């Protein structure tokens, strides 16, 4: 089986979060020379496979086999792996069965390596991610099997394949502000305390503002309001409360405490409650780390392009790996259609990704 045949097979195995669609069992069987460990918990399926070739560094490829629901608007079967004009269509082609196929085939065809090669796969990256990669890392830590470096094969390329890799990620802070007022008749506003009127002059000072200046690798942290709701959907009653939700994709200069201070400063004259939850912390891998250098060299050789080092985009399971002191990077196919109808990846990109990973193993 070549990498494209493997890729198409993975697409046809429907694996909407947290269902793995049988993929993890299939991969364990497809790599019989590797030791396989299942670390399933609370309905989430996780697989770790490894092989010790020699005494050198432990290089791990990581990712997820689960996909978001297909949704509507498809021009073909989202699980049919239909190929047209060099593109292969299907849910998860970009995010991230292309990456899974490329690194599984890399391990399948590797015959020599001076160290340990492994795969870390979960079925719950697109969901809550509570019992996925975090549980595998906990197991590896307890058994002294943590890797030295990890490549997460998320789709990172932007305009052309190979033009971008992730060397870090911003954090994510979710916030909810609830304002309390006094409900009343719209004809007698002086007898009510309208929270919409209270928040209106504040919004200009907080909506979309930069909380820091960023740096060479991170864009400025920005407060993005995602939802405001209040009232009873009638025109003659003023509301008694208001709820506003927001998100901050934070760089290393901003944390939950600084967000709390911002809210306290602007809402000091109102009666409010604030709830903050940090779902991911920012991290940055040293650009001089071995894995970054080798991935740079491998991309340049295979793609004939210099990949930029980026921290843009949302979160990934790399956020769980970095706190263990592991050098982690992300690299994959283009991400222009992730989670969208008619998601697709070119066969050339999948083959190119496989070639890059094989080159990384050779150089590492």
3D architecture notes:
With 364 residues, the chain is of the alpha+beta class. The mean pLDDT is 97. It is elongated. Helix content is 28%, strand content 25%. The protein has a six-stranded mixed sheet with strand order 1-2-6-3-7-18, sandwiched between helices. The longest helix has 17 residues, at 93-109.
Detail the topology: elements first, then pairings.
Blueprint: H1 3-12, H2 23-30, E1 35-38, E2 46-52, E3 58-64, E4 82-84, E5 87-89, H3 93-109, E6 116-122, H4 133-142, E7 149-152, E8 164-166, E9 168-169, E10 172-180, E11 184-185, H5 195-206, E12 223-230, E13 237-238, E14 241-248, H6 256-266, E15 272-280, E16 283-284, H7 290-303, E17 308-310, H8 318-321, E18 327-330, E19 344-346, H9 347-363
Parallel strand pairs: 3-6, 3-7, 7-18, 8-17
Antiparallel strand pairs: 1-2, 2-6, 4-5, 5-19, 9-16, 10-14, 10-15, 11-13, 12-14
């Amino acid at each position: 089986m070549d990498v494209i045949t493997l890729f198409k097979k993975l697409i046809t195995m429907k694996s909407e979060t947290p269902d793995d669609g049988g993929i993890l069992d299939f991969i364990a069987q497809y790599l019989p020379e590797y030791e396989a460990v299942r670390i399933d918990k609370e309905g989430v399926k996780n697989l770790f496979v490894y092989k010790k070739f020699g005494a050198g560094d432990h290089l791990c490829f990581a990712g997820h086999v689960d996909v978001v629901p297909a949704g509507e608007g498809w021009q073909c079967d989202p699980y049919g792996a239909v190929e047209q004009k060099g593109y292969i269509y299907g849910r998860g082609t970009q995010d991230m069965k292309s990456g899974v196929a490329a690194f599984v085939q890399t391990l399948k065809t590797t015959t020599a390596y001076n160290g340990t090669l492994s795969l870390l796969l979960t079925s719950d990256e697109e969901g809550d991610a509570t019992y996925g990669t975090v549980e595998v890392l906990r197991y590896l830590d307890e058994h002294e099997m943590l890797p030295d470096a990890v490549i997460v094969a998320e789709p990172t390329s932007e305009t052309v394949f190979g033009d971008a890799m992730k060397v870090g990620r911003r954090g994510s802070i979710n916030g909810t502000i609830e304002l309390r007022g006094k409900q009343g008749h719209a004809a007698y506003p002086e007898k009510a305390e309208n929270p919409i009127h209270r928040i209106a002059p504040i919004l200009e000072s907080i909506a979309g503002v930069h909380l820091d200046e960023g740096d060479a690798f991170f864009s400025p942290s920005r407060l993005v309001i995602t939802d405001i709701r209040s009232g009873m959907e009638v025109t003659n009653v003023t509301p008694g409360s208001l709820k506003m939700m927001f998100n901050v994709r934070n760089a290393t200069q901003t944390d939950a405490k600084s967000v709390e201070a911002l809210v306290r400063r602007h809402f000091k004259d109102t009666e409010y409650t604030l709830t903050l939850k940090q779902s991911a912390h920012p991290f940055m891998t040293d650009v001089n780390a071995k894995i970054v250098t080798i991935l740079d060299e491998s991309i340049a050789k295979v793609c004939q392009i210099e990949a930029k080092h980026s921290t843009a985009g949302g979160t990934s399971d790399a956020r769980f790996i970095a706190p263990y002191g592991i050098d982690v990077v992300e690299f994959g196919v283009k991400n222009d259609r992730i989670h969208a109808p008619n998601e697709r990846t070119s066969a050339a990109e999948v083959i190119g990704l496989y070639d890059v990973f094989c080159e990384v193993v050779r150089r590492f």
